[in-house]
From TrEMBL, chains A, B:
<keyword id="KW-0805">Transcription regulation</keyword>
<keyword id="KW-0238">DNA-binding</keyword>
<dbReference type="Pfam" id="PF00440">
    <property type="entry name" value="TetR_N"/>
</dbReference>
<dbReference type="InterPro" id="IPR001647">
    <property type="entry name" value="HTH_TetR"/>
</dbReference>
<protein>
    <submittedName>
        <fullName>TetR/AcrR family transcriptional regulator</fullName>
    </submittedName>
</protein>
<feature type="DNA-binding region" description="H-T-H motif">
    <location>
        <begin position="43"/>
        <end position="62"/>
    </location>
</feature>
<dbReference type="InterPro" id="IPR009057">
    <property type="entry name" value="Homeodomain-like_sf"/>
</dbReference>
<dbReference type="InterPro" id="IPR036271">
    <property type="entry name" value="Tet_transcr_reg_TetR-rel_C_sf"/>
</dbReference>
<keyword id="KW-0804">Transcription</keyword>
<dbReference type="InterPro" id="IPR054156">
    <property type="entry name" value="YxaF_TetR_C"/>
</dbReference>
<dbReference type="Pfam" id="PF21993">
    <property type="entry name" value="TetR_C_13_2"/>
</dbReference>
<feature type="domain" description="HTH tetR-type">
    <location>
        <begin position="20"/>
        <end position="80"/>
    </location>
</feature>
Amino acid sequence: MSDEQVAAPTNRRRISQRGIATRDRILEAANRLMLVRGVNATTLDDIREASQTSKSQLYHHFADKQELVRALVKYRGALVLQRERAGLERLRSFSGLVRWRNALVQANSLNDGKYGCGLGSMALELSDQDEQARSSLSETFAAWERLISDGLHRMRDSGLLRQDADPEKLATGLMAALQGGYLLANAAHNVAPMEVALDMALEHIRSFLVQPSGEPVR
Amino acid sequence: MSDEQVAAPTNRRRISQRGIATRDRILEAANRLMLVRGVNATTLDDIREASQTSKSQLYHHFADKQELVRALVKYRGALVLQRERAGLERLRSFSGLVRWRNALVQANSLNDGKYGCGLGSMALELSDQDEQARSSLSETFAAWERLISDGLHRMRDSGLLRQDADPEKLATGLMAALQGGYLLANAAHNVAPMEVALDMALEHIRSFLVQPSGEPVR
DNA sequence: GCGTTTGAGGACCAGATAGTCCAGGTATTT
DNA sequence: AAATACCTGGACTATCTGGTCCTCAAACGC
């Protein structure tokens, strides 16, 4: 009876609104719990309870915990990229970068620097544990950096940035400052280090402006 | 018979060379294993086996896993600070910073960016799980940054850095770039992002030199 | 030498947790 | 209405793992 299902565990074709909703509820719960407790410290029972589903549903939608985690990596990646796309896809000026910085800082200050970046924390926890999750995360970081570097490219093309500015490297540096800022802020339970780190990166980018405005970053 | 021992589990005074050696062996093993697998994914049995000790010795030297982890946080912190003190306490020039950078990059490139910084990985894993470990890590980061900022202070006092340079902020920014670089390098299994991040931070510091030398960072 | 302290070794226990299975009920689609 | 997909609930297992306990050996002071 369930032979066909077993035969095609991954690419099952049955798609019902209800099923999708449950699957999403599970992912959403896993997302929430694993952000504050970490992946390994969160049990499937926690997720089952938080998502108001049953054990069998967990295993109906995901083969095992590892597959759930991998799905979560993509889920969270999609969330971040969607949020970041909204803030970055029309980036055309330095003040746009400052606004982007302010939004991130403000969001993180709401919980006193705790929890850090959903992607960054998974990266450290999973990189040496699940190669597939690692490469997926790596790709998400790359896509995120591309959103930034695309904006920087636009700024360079429009003559705002000097020609010798390297958008890719600047984006990587900014991303590292962001992730390092998240990490230090998390350790300190204080958003201040994240601000300093981002300001440093922005200042660095500012040094590539064709005509550096007199006012400082903030 | 063992009532007295139970009464004073923490501040025991018995100090034997043999005992210290065993304790250190345990910590050293925990350090090694937890660096690659993470804290939560490492079992006491792994540690027992790797340290060639017995279960009872683990619990003779540490009340429970949490105490072991906390001891490891200090152990690792001491190791890092010792290593960093050697490389930073005589920092007096920009080229000294570059040498410091090169040493870190080279060390991390030996394992293709994997594992990251022992402190940083613990910070993300423990910050929302063990308040005591978190604050201990936070202090270690502060001490590490102080090693850097002390060097920058010396450079400023000697007239190398401009007076408006803020050594504390520069040190925080550099530390964030380092930690973010570790994280991205770990996710990518490639040391390149760490190089870019550190170079950005160094370039930022260089912009505060009184007479910026013409040659780039590297 | 003798008793006490310290360390080694490992058997053992209890609880947590991933994962299985099934019996039956409810929605959705055709 | 029939078939298919989805869901509940919970019992059950195997394993892992933190933690306890007990015995024996070595070291050491008296």
